[in-house]
Amino acid sequence: MLEGWVQVVELLQLPFMQRAMLGGILTGVTGGLLGSFVILRQLSFFSDALGHSALLGMVLGVLLGLNPTVVLMVFGVGFALGVTFVLERTQLSADAVLNIIYSSSLALAVITLSLLPGYRGNLNQLLFGDILGISTAALWTSGILLLTGLAYVGLTLPSQMLLTLDEPLARARGVQVGWQRLAFVVLLALVVALAIRSVGVLLVSAFVVIPASTAQMLGSRFTTYVMLAMGIGGLSAVLGMIASAALNLPSGPSIVATQLMFFLLAMGWRGAQKILGT
Amino acid sequence: MTGEVVLRVEGLTVYRGSRLAVQNVSFELRAGSHAAIVGPNGAGKSTLVQAILGILPRQCGSVCILGEPVRLSGYLPPSVRQQVAYVPQRFQFNPGFPMLVEEFVGLGWGALQPRWPWQQRSARRQAVKEALERAGASHLFSKALGQLSGGELKRVLLAYCLAWPRRLLILDEAPAGLDTPSEGEFYQLLEELRQSLGWAILQISHDLEMVSCYCDRVLCLNQSLICQGSPQVALAPEVLSRVYGPVRDSGAKHCFVRYIHRH
User: Fold this and answer.
1) Is B68 in CB contact (< 8 Å) with chain A?
2) What is the CATH number of domain B5-83+166-262?
3) Nearest-neighbour CA in chain A from B66: distance (Å)
4) pLDDT interval class at B62 (50, 70, 90)
5) What ipTM does the predicted assembly reach?
6) How many other CB atoms sit within 10 Å of the CB of residue A234?
7) Is A106 within a domain?
8) pLDDT tens digit string along A224-235?
9) Start-to-end C-alpha separation, chain A
10) Helix count and strand count (H, E) for chain A
11) B217-222 and B224-229: which strand pairing?
12) Which residues in chain A show pLDDT less than 50?
């Protein structure tokens, strides 16, 4: 036990581990912040579909020899704008459109990947990410995105709350619903695109959905709920990274497992509250 | 009818998809006036008020609120927009939505301009308390929005409108679902807002009894305006027969038949 802790302390002194920890916290907090709106606006599938579609962006980046992070962010914004455009101009349901786009992107990504035989070995890294390999530039970008998200949500909180609660009510108050929605999905796309490098296409939506869903069970006040989602996202990253270091487990999945633990604890807490009638 | 014109609608035509929902509607509403829009289901009442507010796009005509035109995009200057309140017909949200009544009513306070959440918090809180008290919902202050009954939700929606001084209140079947004493209180409150504060009220209603008691103006709509005038004129049996005549909606027709029998 003691040896495990010593190992964790030693690992945390390594620069790559410190970067990974900070990257996890920034991703977790930003995921919680945006996720708290995502789940109430029923956009969970959007972040999941974006994550899966982003595989095509990453593969294209590798194929063209461009910086994968930049390609991913451009791809993410393009995806968000494309989905919004299609949804506004067709009578199709959102989940059908997202499913069409993400399954075709995934198919194209796998076909393109098959043309890059030397890269196939890195598929695991694409799918599950590599938080330990996070660069200082990615950390700065994550930090800037978190501050942008905080300023955007903080300054427009009443509009965001109304829009999340009831769209006609928001429109009647003069909320520019189209612009607000677009700004939000672009921000979400950037955050998801950046997080994919750390946690992979398969797990990225967990960072957005699980902490917010946990917070929804614990907070009755909206502002408390958003702060809880951010806190649970950040704390899950810290505890997940520590567990990963102590038990020599993969980092991204360890963070998601920690988020799941918080979710189960919150469910238990809610269940106990119902039984006790409080 | 000497008050300032608060709302002016001219030649308003609205399509919902390819279907003509509202055709060439024109009317005015002055300060201190309480007007009701009546008509069968599918007559375009909700579409009309949503087009007035810019929630739905209009194809023809103009809408002016407090002298400012509502643009085709729905834009209205924030200084005017904050003087308009709207209670929708349906207010449905996820029951697990984490929001307290106090927070929701606070959303009705002030203009929705960028500001940090901690700015003017005490003024907002005070306004919320007063609005809830006026709407008879003080006891709901700390209750979760998702735990409210239908009637409580109506009161809270009204408090949301009362949290800021308005000039125009638009209600889409707002008292529907309230028990009889609460409905009476609701109309009394509207009357107080109209008389003491000079609010102009535009209300969609199926309750012709209440409309004849409290409204000074009735707009009979069935895609286009069939008649507009005082309740005595617009609720005359021959007018109502023209409005509700071809209607398939038995609920609204029953309401109108009952009204005709009583009068």
Assistant:
1) no
2) 3.40.50.300
3) 15
4) very high
5) 0.82
6) 20
7) yes
8) 999 999 999 999
9) 39
10) 13, 0
11) antiparallel
12) none
